[in-house]
Amino acid sequence: MSEAAQRRPPPPVPVTILTGFLGSGKTTLLNRLLADPALADTVVLINEFGEIGLDHLFVEKIDGDMMLMASGCLCCTIRGDLVHALEDLLRRLDNGRIKPFRRVVIETTGLADPAPILNALMGHPYLALRYKLDGVVTTVDAVNGPATIERHREALRQVAVADRIVVTKTDLVEAARSSAALANRLDALNPGAPRLEAAKGEATTESLFSAGLFSTDRKIPDVAAWLHADAFDAHDHHGHGHAHAHDPNRHDASIRAFCLTRDAPLDPRAFEIFLDLLRHAHGPKLLRVKGIVALADDPGRPVVIHGVQHLFHPAVRLAGWPDADRRTRIVLIVDGLDQEFVERLFSAAIGETRADTPDRAALTGNPLDLRPGGLLA
Prior knowledge:
This protein is α/β, with parallel strands linked by helices. It has helices at 3-7, 26-34, 49-52, 82-94, 114-123, 125-130, 145-151, 153-160, 175-189, 205-208, 223-227, 229-235, 268-282, 339-350, 360-364, and strands at residues 13-20, 42-46, 58-62, 66-69, 74-77, 103-107, 131-141, 164-168, 195-197, 255-262, 286-293, 303-308, 311-312, 316-317, 328-335.
């Protein structure tokens, strides 16, 4: 092996975040997953072992806060902050103190907003080099889910950022009374996240993992499955740019999920200005941004983007389009940001002429805040 190859960092480890509100069945799901031998090369980071009742699965205690499970995966208690725990894992791995692992699962507390965890993964220079977000899995209680989402903003955001939603307790009689309301709420909050019923055995290792763009075992990314933009087309009952209305009195009225689409390739500079304006002026309101974009400099090789709040992964230029759909599709899940405003900002940045599109200075309130951040470099 050459010296350059020896210095090259290993492929980034995919990370899955498992979240869900208190009582939503997250513990039961985690127990089931940890019994699967397919997770033998996985490290699970847990806030407190005692909180989630995994003691009956322990087979060996290692190095204080680490447990070896029956499936062969390792479980670690998070001591201190998450960044420290993830850095410590890498130190143990690089020093040969633990066996190599191919996946990390982070189990959050029931009251956690997932956004800071996503920011920790994407915003820390070293962690962003060694880890890649695979997906967010959120458990939702079929009986109490609608009321929980109504009352608790953390539960609302857990659903909004999910890549997979696991609906639990659908086998209980009480669940039938809330099933339609829950389905409508989840459709409004996050139409792009596939829903799986735990009681039907749908929440398997295969269905929950490798949900991200950066899968380690596929050479050509399955961008269509990752974006799930067709679900937003079905969700958009009023034509281009207008998702169905929200009741302004609802607790979740500020959450919007929609998809920007364009047929013609975009000017790279103009698109970078759009992303820069969006993340710098409105970053805290961006729960998730995912997209595949045709750029005019090389329309045969699309660019894939992925962002959480103001942080974006470096854009990935694909070798070619993964399917026959060559439209630009950008999926946004936002909190407190109007869809029509984003549409007008997009139109202004890429130079479209619309009667209701002001200039960039009017949209941002700061005409000097246009310097590109190098996202497409």
